[in-house]
Records
---
Amino acid sequence: MHLAIWMTLCMLWEMNAIGVGHEVHEFPPNFHFSAATAAYQVEGAWNTSGKGENIWDRFIHTHPDWILDHQNADIAADSYHHYQDDINALVQLNVSMYRFSLSWSRILPTGDLNVINHDGVEYYNALINGLLSVKIQPMVTLYHWDLPQPLQDLGGWTNPIMADYFEQYASVAFSLFGDRVKWWITFNEPSHVSSAYADGHQFAPAVESHGIGDYLATHTILQSHTRAYELYKKQFRRKQHGQIGMALFSFWYEPLTRSPTDIAAAERGLEFELGWFANPIFGSGDYPKVMRERVDINSKAEGRVRSRLPYFSRDWIKRMKGSCDFFGLNHYTSTLATTGEDGEKPSRERDSGVVVSEDASWPTTNSNWLRVVPWGMRKMLNYIRLKYNNPPVFITENGYSDEGQLNDNGRVEFYSGYISEMLKAINVDGCNVIGYTAWSLIDNFEWNQGYTKKFGLFSVDYSNKTRPRRAKKSANFFQEMISNNRVPEEIFELLRDSVPEENKEKHPLQFHVPFRLWM
Ligand code: GBH
């Protein structure tokens, strides 16, 4: 009781202190609302109109059994032919932005500049112009996991030469589309791009080199990103006035107990996932200290002559630091962390010394990695604020998975909860969040889960040749929320503790004071 009064005072004081001119359940002025897709997951047309083969085409055609329902994305939602239906859906949603990705091999079929595929370029021109004609800003991801196969044949992201290819691809994209595209994402979830050089069979290119290939891939990706960023700054920004970011995925890591070792485990979990990229770009310019220490020690103990975690030169550290105009965040869910040894030998997982688990009371979804933990969003945003000096954050993905029903009450509840927590982070805690993106605009091909997991605000009828889109209940919820510029008061309960009473004993670490993450 006393605590509640004290919290209210704190919040009111803070609201004044940060000077919000609006109510806590309202969005700040000029806030961007967006919905997202990715080329491979929606476009289809995998080998028509001059498109080249990419690593997902290859992966799926050689290992159909590695996809849960043995399906592929050769046609998918056929957005290549039905992009106008996607635009109509966006209009219906009332969003001001659409995040989609370019298929590298649709524009450059060999991955290199020797062939530029006219039809591919025209497809993206039509999509971009269609969006602008209804006042929707494009946010374009350059790389959402679909490397041209000829570049994988050279070793893919473990080969440092990829930084040359990526910079050239980026320069083509900036020159062709940058007059109209003002928001760029270089890489989507680079941690998962790199994991595909560790795990061996989950994701293309399915290279098995845990604890080695993934660290090498990240090293190249960070340099590729920085080179694209520098190129834009030098050659395009003055004329095009755009912004460049990266979309980083992270779980929120909640310590299993209040013990110092569990708190340290949670911090390491965040460093080994988010910090792996965020520290070079938004922090010191280099990999997190704890990563450097642990991987170096392990590598030595394994009898290696070099660390499995590569080193950056002083020059590179300087160049990477600050190489993003905004912090793209893909956040879905949380996990519990404790100290221990887990995973392959060697692997990033084992190097981290973190063992993760789920709280059985967290509501499940149709994806086993994704539980509904709205308060994790608020902690995640506050962690970024505190750790990286409150950068502008654009939430580039957040979403919920079910079987695809139109009456998707679970999704509406998910979004209500997560968006409410985001608003608390903004309006109460002072986090600098500038935009929010729902994953996904439409039901699509969920990678190795095939079509068994649906994330869309709109469903797609995959039995119909024209793939008609249909609004779900969650689409209407979004439309209304955006028109009113607020989360409905009845679902936004400012002082309600979002952790259920029975969990408090077990997880006493939820927010009482928002900006103290673990105490
Ligand atoms: C994002 O990935 C992607 O950007 C998007 O393409 C995708 O459709 C969407 O979210 C929904 O999944 O090793 O426990 O993490 C989310 C990251 C990567 C989460 C693979 C699940 C496998 C299980 N996903 N991960 S785990």
Note: The longest strand covers residues 137-143.
---
Amino acid sequence: MNSLSTRRVLLGITGGIAAYKSAELTRLLIKAGAEVRVVMTQAATQFITPLTLQALSGNRVHTALLDAEAEAGMGHIELARWPDLILIAPASANFIAKLADGKADDILSTLLLATKAPIAVAPAMNQAMWANVATQENLGVLAARGVKVLGPASGEQACGDVGLGRMLEPPEIATLCAAMFGAGLLAGLRVTITAGPTQEAIDPVRYISNRSSGKMAYALATEAAAAGAQVTLISGPVALATPERVKRIDVISAQQMLAASLEAAAQCDIFIGVAAVADYRPEQIATQKIKKGAATMTLELVKNPDIISTIAALDRRPFTVGFAAETIDVERHGAEKLQRKSLDLLFANDANATLGSDNISATALWPQGSMALGPASKRRVAVQMLELLRQQYDLKHSQA
Ligand code: C5P
């Protein structure tokens, strides 16, 4: 993966022959893991059909500001708030002038005035239009406002001229967009993540466990590896595929998870305890299958070790991050666990809403503050969690 994973990219297409390349660009952005919504100017629809972009992006294409049906789906202000990046490709000379002027006379220019997202433009025009002082001054205005200008390239043009003004090729634009999100947020860091439930044996065929799916931990492992970290995933029994470039160690019981965690923690920078470790285990594991007999039976349970507290108490402890799935008073219980387990960061969430689901909302808590994350997919929230984690990790190390 790359840093476009789960990023929301709003692709604006303006009128120019290079608009036919926007179809390929949409495909590449989606292949890199981005969510893409397309907005087209009226002129752009003369070059490529909205239906093509709708089919490729999987989302309805917006072409008009005053379209009651489109507004009912996602209104233009909501659309302006949606993206992590607005990319205009191709950006015509006329549209660049409009953007520099701050005009809002169609859906795309209106969105650009209303958004707080970063903006990138990939100019595409005839070489004389590109060289014109007016265009160059407009680009200067945009650059001063922080708009990123991607390209253009030099070469043969649709009109027969040769020179600067061709739109960059779609793979180059996709690469530059990924770079805008800063590749390698966790480059060089060693991250250990515990995942899933543990199973505590009662006899050879029975165990005590819980409903943890492991999805949140696997999303974090996927995104941490994508962000350049060296990831060790210590996993209880789950039905999930091992994420790419992740070292997975399978365990069953809490005691096995503790042993694997201690070994990994000795050589990691960040330890994230996402596992729903069973709090208790049967005192005795029967060597043979227990036969049914009496109307009632009692199992004697003993407390399991608290893995994350053990890691946090190590002399050379990694930056230690916990989770708290609660059913009531989520933030209060989370804050109490952050302190009691001496964690650097904790994500508290509502267990009823989260267990087994693909979505999550959580509250991040650290000793000096808190922040709400989501609701969104576990993959997307994982990215937000890792960004916050990196900030807190840097702050802690700058104080050390
Ligand atoms: O179960 P509890 O709410 O206490 O879990 C809070 C945090 O502690 C989680 O990060 C979990 O992975 C960790 N934990 C642990 N060992 C336990 C119980 C919980 O590492 N025995």
Note: Residues 194, 254, 273-275, 277, 279, 304, 306-308, 322-324, 337 surround cytidine-5'-monophosphate (CB under 6 Å).
